[in-house]
Amino acid sequence: MTTLKNDRFLRALLKQPVDRTPIWIMRQAGRYLPEYREVREQAGDFMTLCSTPELACEVTLQPLRRFDLDAAILFSDILTIPDAMGLGLYFAEGEGPRFESPLQSVADINKLGALDPSDKLKYVTDAVALIRRELDGKVPLIGFSGSPWTLATYMIEGGGSKTFARAKALLFEQAEAAHHLMNVLADSVAAYLNAQIAAGAQAVMIFDSWGGALSQAHYHAFSLASMQRIVDQLKRKQDGETIPVIIFTKGGGNWLESMADAGVDAVGLDWTVDIGAARQRIGDKVALQGNLDPAVMAASTETVEREARSILDSYGAGSGHVFNLGHGITPNIKPENVEALVNVVHSHSEQYHQV
Amino acid sequence: MTTLKNDRFLRALLKQPVDRTPIWIMRQAGRYLPEYREVREQAGDFMTLCSTPELACEVTLQPLRRFDLDAAILFSDILTIPDAMGLGLYFAEGEGPRFESPLQSVADINKLGALDPSDKLKYVTDAVALIRRELDGKVPLIGFSGSPWTLATYMIEGGGSKTFARAKALLFEQAEAAHHLMNVLADSVAAYLNAQIAAGAQAVMIFDSWGGALSQAHYHAFSLASMQRIVDQLKRKQDGETIPVIIFTKGGGNWLESMADAGVDAVGLDWTVDIGAARQRIGDKVALQGNLDPAVMAASTETVEREARSILDSYGAGSGHVFNLGHGITPNIKPENVEALVNVVHSHSEQYHQV
Predict the structure, then answer these.
(1) Which ipTM was obtained for this model?
(2) Handedness of CA B158, B160, B162, B164 (dihedral sign)
(3) Distance from CA of B211 to the nearest CA of A (A)
(4) Nearest-by-Cβ selection for B272 from A214, A293, A307
């Protein structure tokens, strides 16, 4: 294996000393970059982009050519697993993801079995292997998946939702089928992430976009319990190296303590949480990732720099912080602001990592 | 004045002993009721319904004829103030509220002055007086307004938003104008709520629908500070009776302690918070209102009853709880489930109010 030239990201996740706070950006390969839009247009549709390893590799690497980022993240979609289960993922223009065959009944759920990622998700592990090779040790590569609850919302609602009425009805009315669904998805996600690790992913992250829409009881019983089931099955060592695990629940600020108890290395924070207060609550146990409001990125460069400094100051001295946005970067952002963000995080954080 | 026949709601807000836990429902006068849809159709458009006191009174009273609710809430819209400021509120079919003339610049903001509710909002205070007369002491009447930050988001974005990019840009880039806008809106809301109190409102509630989209620092500096400014100006006594004040920030679970410190009588909770844990955090200081997930109402009657009991059990013994949903009831709900909810809250809570 090639030696890693920049291991700041992995070290920070493991709370080992670093020279500067590492940074990567959720959805860093995305529509705010003109070179991404060009490849996206060539590909035709979004799923072709995801499922063609050469194209996924190209867009994964694009932001690293422009910015001094400390990690790459596999370019893919959070909904590849239900698509591979046969639900038929597609993207309606301006509408977000949809499924041709959503789950309609308990019978549909009971028919589902855990997915073998070596078959229908080979395009993902092929992309991981290719990206890892092309990165040539520049920075570590992050693999990822959607959380079981988040996958379930799309699988049941057939697309995005404001209220998750149908998905929640399953939790309220059919607890047994709901647990079966969560378990099948958890086992599938675990196998999928382990396949990404075997193919070269050096850290993995579980995105729980919609856990924050649940009650405290349902969050713990369904979303967090199923993430815990994944974490328990993950291969945490590969080629002698530790593979850190990050979980992120948008809107999970109430439940940081429980998330930190799930056996993970790091908890992702959205921007509604003060990172200094979060560190006091749970920061000894795990590393923290976050948490600039993505809306800041649309403001002036001075504002971006000021708000980034304020988060670094709030976290304070020592390792255990991976800088990121609190949610994905939006398409309307000027690349200049991303460059300014990456640079200010590196320069301003130096003072917090004196030996 | 007529003596109040059922003062459970007011007593619970003041943490005085009650025989049963009181209940009312956010958006209880709404599209889930066929008799509401009939009046709404007659009125033609939504604003005609709001601005015609006889119609607003009629739909306010409708749910009280069906269900044993412990409070009435003025039927109105949260955006009446910016409409009265000249921004031109309208409702595009299936799109939610929009403004014809949103705020476009700091100059637009600086032109705004605090509103005198006795002129352009007389239709609201007329409705309050009429409803109060028609209620004839059956239950207390709640007045309300949107919070300054929530009003500001619609005034700046021109309607609903997912990211609040423009409204947040104001906070990030033009702090002085942002504070001016919050102050003008806070003073307008205070005058508006005081006019509702003078006309007969027996409790008031401030709805902060979008405070939960802010960072902790901005929530405190803008949304909560402006609600505090309102609370400080409210007339808390009318005709010898105390007028309780409730504030509710959707997604505010991280900040309950600060909300409880704002000099209010009660804090509204959305469904992501465990009400028993919230009571431990802040329940000695204030009453709590909430917090059933509105999605439960679409489930079976048995589920509605089970989940309602679970919230009552979590709150436990003693006064200081007003049962409600954690957000507004949705149009797809069967009225039978509302009836079951009201009845189970009354019957199951009796055990918690033994003298």
Answers:
(1) 0.94
(2) positive
(3) 10
(4) A214
